[in-house]
Amino acid sequence: MLSFRQLLWLFFNLAFILLSQCTHAKDLKSSCHTCKQIADNFIKGLDQTKKQNFGGGNTAWEERALSKYETSEIRLVEILENLCESSSFDCNHMVEEHEDHFETWWFKRQKKHPDLYKWFCIDTINVCCLKGTFGPDCNACVGGSERPCHGNGVCDGDGTRGGNGRCNCDHGYKGEFCLDCIDGYFNEIRNDTFSLCTECHSSCKTCTGLTNEDCEKCKTGWGEDDEGACLDVNECLNDPPLCKEDQYCLNTDGSFSCKGCDKVCSGCTEAGPDKCQSCAPGYQDTEGTCTDVNECEQPDAVCTAGNQECVNNKGSYICICASGYEEQEGVCVTIPEPGNQYNSLD
């Protein structure tokens, strides 16, 4: 039996190997991306330097001069100098490391191999693969290089020397070959090499067709009727109620939400002052709608202290000192005349 120290050593070594493999695969994908960017920029450089510094004048002389410039080392250097951003270390390093390959292609291989990306990135420095292939040996992706993942996903490492070739399926698809459908989708068409997954009706967790009658299993919030169709469950009919006393329940397809009652209500069935179960304090029922009670117009005065007057507001009222009076220590006293040193209580 292995000791704890030996097990720990084995664990760290396995972790290091796995981490190294992941880092290496990532580096291979990154190298291919950098190379493709360089090749694309080279083609852009070709277009930008086309007929550079020419236009007008002696056409015959220009054509002779241009033919020399077209394949000149001067033009090559101008293109190479603009392949990378100054801050891109990987790009600049790759160009510097393989400058001799660019010269070889420019002077000797360009006519026979016009596709610089394929000649340089795939066949020469071996950092990329043809589309639909992956890994060090450019093996075909799952489903074949013509239709990786049977057209329903992306092959890991596709077009690079990295990756494991496994399929990352598009939404709606699953499985090693991206031919199966996830829950909520069904196979409208399916054979050994082609699959079309179509979304189920919103009520279905799994299904065999497009309608709510084709559900194999209903989603949460939906229930099966006597004929096997999935219908919305109205949670707002639940007893006891699912919402608080100051809220009303709003049913939605497959779910519900709790909404706050109007502030004039004490309990409600829907939004608005006309949907109250009863009126909140300070409000009264007026022909089915809760309206403000004007406490200041009640037969019995609500502001009983001396020299006060009532001011109504929504759902309540306040008592303030009448004109010519001010509050001092909770009592309304006469505002003194200018020059009068004494305040008198009324």
TrEMBL record:
Enzyme Commission number, as recorded: 5.3.4.1
GO cellular component entries: membrane
Signal peptide start and end residues: 1-25
Alphabetized InterPro entries for the sequence: DUF3456, ECM_structural_protein, EGF, EGF-like_Ca-bd_dom, EGF-type_Asp/Asn_hydroxyl_site, EGF_Ca-bd_CS, Furin_repeat, Growth_fac_rcpt_cys_sf
Top-rank EC class of the record's enzyme: isomerase
Keyword Disulfide bond: yes
GO MF term (any one): calcium ion binding
Record flagged with keyword Signal: yes
Compartments (UniProt record): Membrane
Cystine pairings recorded for this chain: 169-178
Source domain of life: Eukaryota
Reactions listed under catalytic activity: Catalyzes the rearrangement of -S-S- bonds in proteins
Pfam family of the protein (one): EGF_CA
Record's bilayer topology term: Multi-pass membrane protein
Predominant location: membrane
Domain EGF-like: 137-179, 292-333
Protein keywords: Calcium, Disulfide bond, EGF-like domain, Isomerase, Membrane, Redox-active center, Repeat, Signal, Transmembrane, Transmembrane helix
Gene3D superfamilies in the cross-refs: Hormone Receptor, Insulin-like Growth Factor Receptor 1, Chain A, domain 2 (2.10.220.10), Laminin (2.10.25.10)
TM annotation in the entry: none
Entry similarity comment: Belongs to the CRELD family.
Function: Protein disulfide isomerase. Promotes the localization of acetylcholine receptors (AChRs) to the plasma membrane.
Protein name: protein disulfide-isomerase
Name of the gene: CRELD2
